[in-house]
Amino acid sequence: MDYIALSRVSLKHLTTLHVLLSTHSVTAASKVLCVTPSNVSKILSQLREQLNDELFYRDGGQLIPTPLAITIGPEVHKILSSMNGILHQGQFDPASFQGSISLSMRESTFELFSPLIRSIRQQLTQAQQIQIYSKEQMNFESLSRGQVDFMILPHDISQPPTKSRGLVWRQLLKDEMVCLMAGNHPLARQQTITIQDYLEYQHIGILDKDLSEPYFEQNLTQQHQPRRLAMSVADFGSAALMCHHSDLLLTSSKAWADCAMQAKGLVQKPLPFEYGQVGYSLVWNEVSLNNPSLRWLHTQLTAG
After folding, report:
1. Does residue 161 fall inside a structural domain?
2. Residue 139 falls within a domain, yes or no?
3. Is the Cβ–Cβ distance between 55 and 10 less than 8 Å?
4. Which keywords, in A-to-Z order, does the entry hold (predicted)?
5. Cα–Cα distance for residue pair 131/101, rounded to 1 Å
6. Do 197 and 272 touch, CB atoms closer than 8 A?
7. Exposed, middle or buried by CB within 10 Å (0-12, 13-18, 19+), for 133?
8. pLDDT at 160 exceeding the cut of 80
9. CATH number of the CATH domain containing 41
10. Would you say the pTM of this structure is higher than 0.90?
């Protein structure tokens, strides 16, 4: 072990690097750390020298991390999480918590879990902020690097969700899949739809580059034929709005469709084929639970 090299890099350096990876700005990082921008720039300069890498390069008003900075981000997060657990041992009091917490999810997922998030917010009366990011903005890599605390998303339970190491998954809610269509759609008058009905019309797909191809897509292709996708969007909500104004079909979460404002007026039909098991899961970086506040938040999110 190189004790001399280790002695030149402090928690101050690692904390600054971690915050810069989240903010991409010296000015924003200085506000988070309650120091001057020149102080952040000085620490960054020291890190560049110690690690023999630029770590960030400027693109307009943003700092873009180098491959090395991205690679070491998860390891830096582990070190800081462990140290944070040592510094903040003991019972956590939500009423006196003055920090911030962050979640990543699709817009439609927020609609489904908003009562739970409201309950958490009511308990964190002194918290600076509860930040809710879109999954497109804060993805699995962001979770690995500690830029976001937890992620909630719908997915195919039967498929391996992601190859990202160090991430833990826990199912929060069992769900079903349904076929949604406009009230004036030709299939809306039928009590049930056949596989021929389902494949006759064009569909709206949901984009998610981080997850494996859903089982229902694979099974549909193997047993029958692929769906004809007319368009793909990032979320159930925008897909449902398109359903209202077209004859396109949407295969979606039933739990979401039962409560979502965008789905009001759309007709639900059971899917005419096997689609496996689906649900909503909580995803987190295993080292995050070293933090007492995140352990408490994890308990709240999984209590149901």
Report:
1. yes
2. yes
3. no
4. DNA-binding, Transcription, Transcription regulation
5. 6
6. yes
7. middle
8. no
9. 1.10.10.10
10. no
Distance CA 282, CA 280 (A): 7
Averaged over 235-253, what is the pLDDT?
94
* Backbone φ and ψ of 162, nearest 5°: -160, 155
**In the numeric block, which tokens belong to residue 155?**
């997915």
**275 belongs to a structural domain:** no
Do residues 182 and 244 share a domain?
yes
Residue 289 has a CB neighbour count (10 Å cut-off) of: 17
CA 276 to chain centre: 23
Tokens read off for 28: 């924003």
Angle made by CA atoms 45, 46, 47, in degrees to the nearest 5? 90
- For the chain, how long is the longest CA-to-CA vector? 76
Total residue count of the chain as it appears in this document: 304
User: 181 with 254, same domain?
Assistant: yes
In the chain, the amino acid numbered 223 is Q
What whole-number percentage of the chain has pLDDT above 70?
A: 95
Cβ 16 vs Cβ 29: under 8 Å: yes
